[in-house]
Amino acid sequence: MINHQKLLAISLVLVTTMQALPVRSQSFGAEGTSSAAPINLEPITPEFKNRIGISYRMGMNITVDFKKFGGLALSDPGAATGGAVNRNYDNGYSRVDSSGNANNQTWYWGYSSPQSVQGGNLVLQSYSTPANASSNNRGDDPHHGFEINYQRELYRKPHWRFGAEAAFGYSLISVDDSRTLHNRVYRTNDTFALNGVIPPNSPYNGTFEGPGPVISSEPSSRSTDVLSAAATITGNRSLDAHVFMVRLGPYLEVPLSERFSFFINGGLTLGAGYTKFSFHENVEISDPAYGVTLTSGHRSGSGSETDFIIGGYGGAGISYAMTKQVSLFTSAIYQAAGHVTNSERGKESVLDLGKSILVSVGVSYAF
């Protein structure tokens, strides 16, 4: 008979030997034969569908037009006809005297320059320049800002990826202009018959009550001359703008290598522009032919305004994958976002974002 202690020892040896043997997977063929194959368990690389990025943004080709500057008219010659009309000129006057300009004559007249006496007539001038001088296409590129963007991948193929993006951006735009502007001047010439009167030497100022030398009170003729660039506008103009923009649209990304990718994007632009416009100006009209110089004195104005913007954009860029989740990128966007207008005391500043180019450099994170 087998001893119980020997039986227990044999059992322990068998168990230990079986545990030490390698375990193999077996599959059985059609004829019942078995074959062993190793099982490889590798982690699956996740496909990151989302990406968020932040970038420094540089704006170029952003311009400002400063409009409706100048404007000066210090006298009023009245209608071209009529004998009982108060007429004021920049180098004299012809007004209604105490007689009511009986027989279309007046002693209430005067002049300041000897050039006004021409033969047997008194010729007086009234000057005006319109408020339509402009300083256009002023820009101080580049303008600085930043952008935060989010992308969601929607489709992925071996050679391209397609998705949608949304971005929020901010730009600070500051433009100053101090160019001297010139504008045309309209000179109105009214001719009064002296009727044989030899006028007193200039300057002469007749009175309402009189008496004094009497001349015709109604112009015998009126003409208008255009003096090119006879008005000079000096001073400075400035615009400070805070522009907030939102971009919405699709993008297409094409891998160029393991790390480099090329992408294009485009879509809708929405935004708002807060602008502060200020100006200082002096207007001077000069006509050496009649010894006339007119000045407006100092003018200034300042104010803020908010305007909304809508437009579109299209761009392209390149990204470089530093890791599977972190990438560097640079891009350029052409943006057509319209205009922002600010009006103060009849003057205007027009911020033109219709042809701006935005260059960005930033970093993104995929998750």
Order of adjacent strands in the largest pleated sheet: 3-13-14-18-19-21-22-25
**Tally of strands:** 25
Can you tell me the CATH topology of the largest domain? Porin
Mean pLDDT reading: 90
Largest sheet: 8 strands, antiparallel, barrel
Share of helix, binned = under 10%
Furnish the topology, listing elements before pairings.
Elements lengths: L3 H17 L6 E2 L5 E2 L14 E11 L2 E7 L2 E2 L13 E3 L2 E3 L10 E2 L2 E3 L5 E2 L2 E9 L3 E6 L4 E15 L2 E18 L3 E13 L10 E2 L9 E2 L4 E35 L4 E28 L4 E4 L3 E23 L4 E11 L2 E6 L2 E6 L3 E11 L1
Antiparallel strand pairs: 1-2, 3-13, 3-25, 4-12, 4-24, 5-11, 6-7, 7-9, 8-17, 9-16, 10-11, 11-15, 13-14, 14-18, 15-18, 18-19, 19-20, 19-21, 21-22, 22-25, 23-24
Could you describe the 3D structure shown?
An eight-stranded antiparallel barrel has the order 3-13-14-18-19-21-22-25. A hairpin with a 2-residue loop joins strand 23 (339-344) and strand 24. The chain is rod-shaped and about 105 Å long. With 367 residues, the chain is mainly β. 5% of the residues lie in helices and 62% in strands. It has two domains: 50-71 and 133-184 and 229-366, Porin (Beta Barrel), CATH 2.40.160; 87-126 and 187-222, no CATH class.
Keywords:
four-stranded antiparallel β-sheet; 1 helix; single chain; 367 residues; 5% helix; 2 domains; eight-stranded antiparallel beta barrel; Porin; mainly beta
